[in-house]
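Thread: Newbie trying to understand structure tokens

Hi all, I'm a second-year student working on a class project, and my supervisor (Dr. K.) asked me to get a predicted structure for one chain before our next meeting. I've only ever worked with sequences, so writing a 3D structure as a token string is new to me. If someone could post the tokens and maybe explain what I'm looking at, I'd be very grateful. Here's the chain:
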Amino acid sequence: MSNAAETPKVADGFDAIRARYVELTGKVPPSIETRIEVNKQAGRLDAVEAIEEHRQVLIMNNPLGRKFGQLVHFSQLVALGDASPARLHARSAFKAGATVSELVGVAELSLITSGIPAYSLAIEIIGELLEEESGSQAE
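---
Reply by user tm_fold:
Sure, no problem. This is what the structure looks like when written as tokens:
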């Protein structure tokens, strides 16, 4: 069990992790909140920090840059049919400056490599992004 002196450091560590996701995607994904909460209960901040450092190096500091890195990530997840993280990375690409045309380009390439299901998933996700965007502009 940790003592009171360690509590602020742990909270700061998890808050820093949350802040990175907000920077990347605009929010903390539910799966990441679950990861944080489970590891907080287990006293495993160090494990989450190790995972997040790995992500920081490979995703945030990628030589492709944030926009193209997120487009590649989106394309790979669409090809795998992994909808929830594909949504997250499409949103991240969009937030990093990807255009609707670039996102559609991912959908079109996914058709070549993974067929109609991947293309359909990508188009569905892009449609959701556009709905979110038009909804946020209307407010």
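A couple of things are worth pointing out once you decode it. The mean pLDDT is 87. The longest helix spans residues 116-138. Feel free to ask follow-ups in this thread.
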